[in-house]
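Working notes for the structural subgroup meeting. M.R. asked for a predicted model of this chain before we commit to crystallization trials. I am recording the input and output together here so anyone reviewing the notebook later can reproduce the run.

Input as submitted:
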Amino acid sequence: MGISHEYHSTSRRRRGGAGGFARLAGAAAGILLVSFAITVILEHGQKQAEELPTVTANGTAQNILAPLPMQGGADSSADSTAPAADGTAAVTLEQFGPARQTAGAYSVRAYDSSVIRQPACGQVDLSYFSDAAFLGDSLTVGFSDYSINLGGALICGYTGVGPDAIVNRSAVKSSVRGPEVALDVLAAAQPKKLYILLGTNTLTTVGAADRFLAYYGQMLDVLRQTLGEGCVIYVQSIPPVRPEAAVEKPGLASDIIRSVNEQLALLAADKGCVYLDLWETLADGEGNLKEVLAAPDGVHFSAGNGYGAWVTYLRNHAKYAADNVWTPGSAYAG
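Returned structure, recorded in token form:
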């Protein structure tokens, strides 16, 4: 009996030890499985983090995966957002909840002139320009030549000049005051607003844009130093021209001017200036100067319609300030 009892006790202990070993082995296997899963998740997340979005030449960022809006109901049919301005595919929402996302399925517009440009906000009275100055080429000279009413603004218009003449303090000729250095005239006047329109004379040939933009940025820096932070500097887009004028001066072709204006908008934003998109009022559907606004040469503006449209646009797109003199009936009239 004693031997039998000892045998069975030993047998039970062995079976208990084997079961404990099996349990330990299972726990270890479970820990290894969890560790493997965590490693896979971390590696996958790191790989996704390394897949940075690419940006195309037209300023469109691709491969950006972000939460998308929810659809209104489970039985809603597929819907799309408005297509991008460049015709790229819109986002398509498939079922209720966030849509399934695939690389290249949609695009995000980069910061551009449509975002930067000053919106219309009421209409200021002409007296708003009494402490303003206008700096530009022959288009700006037209304010003086045609006696356009700008509330007594200082006109610094010089035929044929570009931003390099301002930076280099070149002697220029005013049709009203004669030879002068534009920067000295502005420094003496200390206007509270400065409207700049340069480029039409400088960009007549293809390939001139880089030099023009480099000088334009330097000019904005010099003007800011000269006029101080209290002056609001308006950067006006280079106007379009008529198609026949672009044939004679290929640097003024619509697509080239559009590209330069995009860079001007970015410069204005970077330098703390206000960007005015004159194309909103001057360009037709093909990106040419509206015929009714053009002078016979297809580059300059007509004395009545052209300058009238320009001044009206400036009055409707002044930077908002509570002390601006708004015209009766304007959205911000006092």
